[in-house]
Design a protein that fits this description.
alpha+beta, three-stranded mixed β-sheet, two-stranded antiparallel sheet, 29% helix
Length: 154
C-alpha cells in the first residue's frame, strides 16, 4: 500500500527523528502550554525559518544554552536558572530575547544585559542579537528553577 501522506512511515520498532533527538541528550525538548507536547515543542524550535524559507542556523534552545554562561554577579547563578529569561525568538539568523532583572534598581543590570548580548553573538551564523528589558510580569523568586530554588533554600 502506498503512503499518501507527507509523514514518512517507519517499520515498527525503529526510533523516529524525535525519539533519536530526545534520547541522544544532544537536545532537550520541553513541553510548553502553547504546544501541548514535548515533540511539538522540539518541532517548533527547529522549524524556525527566515522570510525566504531558509532554516535558522540555531534554535531558541541553543540561544538559551549560551545565555546560561551569563551570571548574576551578586548571586553567581546564571540568568536562565534564575528565571530572568522570559522569551527567546529566532527568526532566520536573528534572535530576540526578552528578559528581566531581579529588581528595577539592580546595579548589575547593564552588565548582565551586555553580557547576554555578547554571549548571543557567539552563536555561529548569528545575525542581529537584541536583548529587551521587560518588567511585566515582575520577576519573583518563584521563577527560579526548582532545583536551584531548593539549593538556595527557598
Amino acid at each position: 500500500m502506498e503512503n499518501t501522506s507527507d509523514t514518512p512511515t517507519l517499520p515498527t520498532g525503529e526510533p523516529t527523528a524525535e525519539t533519536q533527538t530526545e534520547t541522544s541528550g544532544a537536545s532537550q525538548a520541553h513541553t510548553s502550554p502553547e504546544s501541548g507536547s514535548a515533540t511539538d515543542a522540539a518541532s517548533d524550535a527547529t522549524a524556525q525559518a527566515s522570510a525566504d524559507g531558509a532554516p535558522s542556523a540555531f534554535t531558541p534552545d541553543q540561544a538559551r544554552l549560551v545565555l546560561r554562561r551569563v551570571k548574576d554577579p551578586e548571586l553567581n547563578l546564571n540568568i536562565v536558572d534564575l528565571g530572568l529569561v522570559y522569551d527567546v525568538v529566532v527568526v532566520g539568523n536573528d534572535v530576540r530575547v526578552d528578559m528581566s532583572l531581579t529588581s528595577p534598581g539592580c546595579p548589575s543590570g547593564p552588565e548582565i544585559m551586555g553580557e547576554a548580548e555578547k554571549e548571543l553573538k557567539t552563536l555561529p551564523g548569528i545575525g542581529e542579537a537584541v536583548v529587551n528589558l521587560v518588567w511585566s510580569p515582575a520577576w519573583t523568586p518563584e521563577r527560579i528553577e526548582p532545583r536551584v530554588r531548593a539549593y538556595m533554600g527557598f
